[in-house]
Write a structure and sequence with these properties.
341 residues; alpha/beta; seven-stranded mixed sheet; 14 helices; 13 strands; 17% strand
């Protein structure tokens, strides 16, 4: 079987394995205080042009989201997000399990707008029963979204302006950040991301690392004592150098964006293959997640050789599915799929 069902089914870029092997006999202080983590932090601060940023390495995405959000919210507050947002649909209710509600906004493409956020927050405070209702405490978005779509720079600017107007932080989930930044239609840089939110994270698990994510805190109000939240939510790795070494390699010589661009190249090749054969898409084909609409008979046929995800029922005979490319997707496998469609 050839797998297109996720972007973390492969291991990692070979440079990371080589670096881990080379440094295997080193003795390092634990919990992210080692020289490799310190060097990786400097590389990331330089990449985003924010030497004032606090940078922390985490073991996985769920721990990252929970550590960030719970460190910011008060007990009576919840997180504004798209109804399709990762924290709402793909983390087994992790946020709710620690007492914080997802305040969802409907969306057709995975994105939420500044107007929607403004309306939700205003509606809360204008409600006579406001103190009996979960208070909006943070805005959570993904770049790219769960639908593979992207916010434009103007959309992020407008969204952040609304957040600042209401004195509420904006947190950007960047599990697939590299794939968003290197998409052909993208007009946002990593420096823009760092200047248009209070906290974001750089995904490693889906973008070339064996595992691990990198939290970047820009707003000084959320920096103090954040390591306590990391520890409390199971995100602090004793052998922290394993994370530092990986992000050293990812941010060496612009490698993070280079390997992410490969996934975009493969996705664009595959998208063209679908389009040339007359297929339409459930969501716009913008990043490394593609959502073509297939005839159910064709779906069954492709399932014999390829792994992908069913996404949404269109009608009795058609289904929207998801194909995902990654930093390690082989062009020969994409070409095999194109021949079959």
């Amino acid at each position: 079987m050839i797998r297109f069902d996720s972007d973390y089914i492969e291991g990692c870029i070979p440079e990371i394995l080589e670096a881990l092997t080379k440094t295997n006999d080193e003795q390092c202080i634990g919990y992210g205080k080692d020289p490799h983590c310190m060097h990786a932090i400097k590389l990331i601060q330089n990449a985003i042009n924010r030497p004032d940023a606090d940078v922390h390495f985490m073991v996985g995405g769920t721990q990252t989201n929970i550590a960030v959000i719970t460190s910011i919210l008060k007990h009576h507050q919840g997180a504004i997000c798209a109804e399709s947002g990762h924290i709402n649909v793909h983390e087994t209710g992790a946020l709710e399990s620690v007492g914080h509600k997802c305040l969802i906004i409907p969306t057709n493409d995975g994105k939420i707008t500044a107007t929607q956020v403004d309306t939700l927050i205003k509606a809360h405070y204008e409600d006579e029963s406001a103190e009996h209702i979960v208070q909006p405490g943070i805005v959570y978005i993904s770049f790219p979204t769960e639908s593979g779509t992207l916010y434009t720079k103007q959309e992020l600017t407008d969204l952040y302006a609304v957040c600042q107007k209401h004195e509420i932080p904006l947190f950007i989930d960047g599990a697939r950040l590299g794939y968003g930044l290197t998409a052909s239609c993208n007009d946002v840089t990593i420096q823009d991301i760092a200047n248009l939110c209070d906290v974001f994270y750089i995904g490693g698990t889906k973008v070339g690392a064996l595992f691990g994510e990198c939290i970047v805190i820009l707003n000084p109000a959320y920096k103090k004592d954040f390591r306590y939240s990391i520890k409390q939510h199971g995100g602090m790795l004793a052998k922290g150098r394993l994370l530092g070494i990986q992000f050293e390699e990812l941010f060496k010589d612009n490698r993070y964006l280079t390997i992410a661009k490969h996934a975009i190249d493969m996705a664009e090749l595959l998208a063209k293959g679908f389009q040339d054969k007359g297929y339409s898409f459930y969501f716009p084909a913008q990043t490394n997640q593609l959502f073509p609409i297939l005839d159910n008979e064709k779906l069954k046929e492709l399932s014999q050789e390829f792994c992908f995800s069913k996404w949404a029922t269109i009608d009795e005979t058609h289904t929207a599915v998801r194909f995902v490319t990654s930093f390690a997707t082989k062009q020969e496998n994409v070409e095999k799929l194109i021949k079959k469609i």
